Amino acid sequence: MPDPSLLEVFDAPTSSPFLIEHVAEEFTSVCPRTGHPDFGEVLLRYEPAASCVELKSLKLYYQSFRNEGIFYEAVTNQIRDDLVAAMSPRWLQLITAWKGRGGIRSRIVAAHGPVPEAWVRA
Amino acid sequence: MPDPSLLEVFDAPTSSPFLIEHVAEEFTSVCPRTGHPDFGEVLLRYEPAASCVELKSLKLYYQSFRNEGIFYEAVTNQIRDDLVAAMSPRWLQLITAWKGRGGIRSRIVAAHGPVPEAWVRA
Amino acid sequence: MPDPSLLEVFDAPTSSPFLIEHVAEEFTSVCPRTGHPDFGEVLLRYEPAASCVELKSLKLYYQSFRNEGIFYEAVTNQIRDDLVAAMSPRWLQLITAWKGRGGIRSRIVAAHGPVPEAWVRA
Amino acid sequence: MPDPSLLEVFDAPTSSPFLIEHVAEEFTSVCPRTGHPDFGEVLLRYEPAASCVELKSLKLYYQSFRNEGIFYEAVTNQIRDDLVAAMSPRWLQLITAWKGRGGIRSRIVAAHGPVPEAWVRA
Amino acid sequence: MPDPSLLEVFDAPTSSPFLIEHVAEEFTSVCPRTGHPDFGEVLLRYEPAASCVELKSLKLYYQSFRNEGIFYEAVTNQIRDDLVAAMSPRWLQLITAWKGRGGIRSRIVAAHGPVPEAWVRA
Amino acid sequence: MPDPSLLEVFDAPTSSPFLIEHVAEEFTSVCPRTGHPDFGEVLLRYEPAASCVELKSLKLYYQSFRNEGIFYEAVTNQIRDDLVAAMSPRWLQLITAWKGRGGIRSRIVAAHGPVPEAWVRA
Amino acid sequence: MPDPSLLEVFDAPTSSPFLIEHVAEEFTSVCPRTGHPDFGEVLLRYEPAASCVELKSLKLYYQSFRNEGIFYEAVTNQIRDDLVAAMSPRWLQLITAWKGRGGIRSRIVAAHGPVPEAWVRA
Amino acid sequence: MPDPSLLEVFDAPTSSPFLIEHVAEEFTSVCPRTGHPDFGEVLLRYEPAASCVELKSLKLYYQSFRNEGIFYEAVTNQIRDDLVAAMSPRWLQLITAWKGRGGIRSRIVAAHGPVPEAWVRA
Amino acid sequence: MPDPSLLEVFDAPTSSPFLIEHVAEEFTSVCPRTGHPDFGEVLLRYEPAASCVELKSLKLYYQSFRNEGIFYEAVTNQIRDDLVAAMSPRWLQLITAWKGRGGIRSRIVAAHGPVPEAWVRA
Amino acid sequence: MPDPSLLEVFDAPTSSPFLIEHVAEEFTSVCPRTGHPDFGEVLLRYEPAASCVELKSLKLYYQSFRNEGIFYEAVTNQIRDDLVAAMSPRWLQLITAWKGRGGIRSRIVAAHGPVPEAWVRA
């Protein structure tokens, strides 16, 4: 079950602005309607304020969705909320891209704070 | 025959803005001039207000065009209108990309409401 | 409904051996189990004996499967049989490649006569 | 010889703004200096006012350049002018992309009216 | 837990030889050493004797490995064995291709019966 | 009109066996049925005996098909015959690959003499 | 030795604004430090005022750098300057992209006049 | 150990603004947590003021990180700082892109001075 | 320094023949002539007899070359020999593919035992 | 002028058979007919007997063709002959692939000794 307590942070190494992007290519959860697994890719992009998410803890947090029945939109908004709560970043963007189901592939884009114009697009 | 009553919606999981994109790679209708089938891809991109289109109902709605004789421009505008009517989104973009006919491939781009500059381009 | 009478042939322009390959990228039929459309690509490769299949008639023949409920394996074997009956080629290979369903994409390979080793593989 | 009278238009299916793009991948004309054929791709992008160019007539119009001795720049400007005259679009963009000659490949970009910033780039 | 009883077969539509290939792009199991999920692609290629594996049952069978702790080599050999037991094919090839772990990506190739030379290679 | 007299040859620079391949990416002729242009790529592969075809003369010979109404199969066989007559190679392979017409793209493969197994495939 | 006198211009075919782009894929000069050849691609993009550079003369001008010992930055600025002197364009952009040396590949971007925002990026 | 004294600069060949980009595809350092090597690509993009970094010295400087235990974020910020100190550029952008670890690949983007909007995005 | 004692093996899970392939994308050693690092990819392909190499131990073994001055040919032959000594496979193929140096990229192919014809080629 | 004395060899590190491949992506010579430069890629593949060609000397040898007026076929045969004379390999394959001239790109394949069937094809 999704477990935000798995998320660990570390102090940002500098106070000058910079951008961090982590792309997890092997995300999987379960469709609550059909019970079939969903597979996708999760792009996290943010500008840290005081803290950054630790990479291995991020991986374990993503793995905690493995057997959760949850819709695309809910996954995306929950990950966004959990990461914002853990890091309080200057801004954050969370984009999930899902493999095709019935010939339709989907992306969900959620954000927090002022994403710079150049980085809005996935 | 195109049947907008197939479209079902569900409540948006959050009131904070986010973007949804569904790419249907296997759209087909019929050219009303020649009777030959047309094949294309339909990109739907929108920001929900209160409701989102349900994915399986979207697929069935697209399938209802299978044997309809209809031009590229009309397909694109009708899908845009039907989805706007069903969801009343904050903005919506509908882009159809058609496989080549006689060495010419085409795209039609229709929109509703204020598409953010970063997302205007297909 | 699949209609082999649509197939027209013309005399091969030479009696010396040569190979013809037609790849139809926009084949569609219907899954008899679910009623949902299937989309695929049909590769026909053959060495003519006395006659060749005419390209436009091949296209119309393929279109006659559009609303037929038929499994992958049956489509492939039927097209192979209809083309062999129409052309009596020295050898013929028919390969269908289907877009993913539930995360699984498929190919079916049927043949008639002695396909040269170099051309067996799709 | 280039023949703009081949261009036919039809009424735009809606008065709300939308964008149409046709990419002709098989354009050919003749270099007036060397007599050798030139091969290229013609991208037409426009927002219709009251009328749209009919696709088959566009193809025939492009074919009328087949044996014309004409430079890249002149082709591009003439097609732009002929299409503007035929359709009076809100804006129009015409981009030709030519295969390499002597190790140099070229693109020519011509426009009419206010092309939206997001679509300026080829 | 892997469950071969999920596999269903149907009668081959013809007794003449043909080849079937199913590529499942979204296979996942768990590494028994680390507990981390493994992600891979499973290619099944076979020539049916009297029966073929039903596609949806194959998908459910693959899903039954989702939370199983099992090594690459064991997964590959077990799937090969279960499919051979279910279908008794003339020959069968089972290839798993795994996403990188620690900068190393792997493939395991198992076979049953005389795979034709042209199809041996993945 | 196709003009084999344009073909010039030069003496092979060595009597030891070697292979020459020329791929002309910009071949065009006219469909005799519809009058529309056909576009394709011509791959010539051969082992010279005493003489090689000169590259610029080959280009001019290909250009002589520009306004000829001729079917795919006939083009391929004629080029093969004209080149064999001009060069008397040890073996020669001529493969034409045509852009899609009505969603079907085609290749024609003609040969002369013993093409080595490794080079048979396009 | 680089020879700007090789550059020839012709009158722009129209006074309305348009854009011209020439990409030379086979540029080579010599590293003045090591004496080893450098290989790169030269992208020229400009909006003509009264005159355009003739394509074959551009090719010969680029070839005049073949045995010149000159750094990346100097090549780029010199070509920019020579072309501006020859054509007096409304604006001009010159981008060189160099193949890797010691695992590092480079690009140099020089401009003259107001390059439109949409075209600044290579 | 990272050694900024390896960086050598040379005078910019012109005082007019231009952009330089160096992409080092073979960067490696060591993860301080696990001791395993990290592999990545370093993109440096800048507009020189009075001086440019010499390419071979840049390569040696990057190599000095080979056996350093250092996190992604620290590498990126240190290279940015060292290069700014060595060159005092008008602006500079430093982007590191790291190969996947545990199924997650990362990019870090640091900047100095006013990066033009068109070049902000990697 | 290369350390074959790092290699661990485990019992093959079956005695029936199967093939294992591991591609390590991040191999690096040092050129003994120049002292500069070399970067490459190591493909290992083998059929186990009684034992298989354990994946993590293989990774650590490869890492032991990190600071070794050694030529391409010697690396390839040494890895082949060490793996053959550790596993006594039925056959084994070891292919190293090196990134470009001075515009030349290289591959070295070493083998042990009877590699099946279909798998000889990299 | 081509200078085979630049070629240096070193002793093969093992007497057991192995294969070496060097791909030089930046070969250039001059067309003796037109005086224009030719650009191509040279693939060398061989099995050493007692000696191997040293990589830097190979690069310098290739560079010695830079200003030589020489046809594709002659370049290929000369490099083959010079390398055979320098190394006396068990077998050797030399393939040159040339960028397009007038829309035609070419490859020349020369060999010495018994090239294994699996490696004949470029």
The CATH H-level homologous superfamily of chain A: GTP cyclohydrolase I, C-terminal domain/NADPH-dependent 7-cyano-7-deazaguanine reductase, N-terminal domain
Oligomerization status of the protein chains: homodecamer
Mean pLDDT of chain A: 95
What's the CATH C level of chain A?
Alpha Beta
> What is the general shape of chain A?
globular
Residue share in helix of chain A: 10-25%
Q: How many E strands of chain A?
A: 6
Elements of chain A, N to C (H/E): EEEEHHEEH
* CATH architecture descriptor of chain A: 2-Layer Sandwich
Q: Indicate the structural class of chain A.
A: alpha+beta
Strand share of the residues of chain A?
35-45%
What is the number of helices of chain A? Answer: 3
For the biggest β-sheet of chain A, the strand order reads: 2-3-5-6
Q: What is the number of independent domains of chain A?
A: 1
Summarize the structure.
Helices cover 24% and strands 41% of the residues of chain A. With 122 residues, chain A is α+β, with helices and mostly antiparallel strands. Chain A has a single domain (4-120), classed as GTP Cyclohydrolase I, domain 2 (2-Layer Sandwich), CATH 3.30.1130.10.
Structure, explained:
10 copies of one chain form a homodecamer. By secondary structure, chain A is α+β, with helices and mostly antiparallel strands. Chain A has one domain (4-120): 2-Layer Sandwich (GTP Cyclohydrolase I, domain 2), CATH 3.30.1130.10. Chain A is 24% helix and 41% strand. Chain A contains 3 helices and 6 strands. Chain A has helices spanning 55-63, 72-87, 117-120, and strands spanning 9-11, 18-30, 37-47, 51-53, 91-101, 104-112. In chain A, the strands form 2 sheets. A 4-stranded antiparallel β-sheet of chain A has the order 2-3-5-6, covered by helices on one side. The longest helix of chain A has 16 residues, at 72-87. Chain A is globular and about 45 Å long. Chain A starts with 8 loop residues before the first strand and ends with a helix. The C-F interface holds C 12-14, 16-26, 52, 55-56, 58-59, 116-119 and F 71, 73-74, 76-77, 100-111, 117, 120-121.
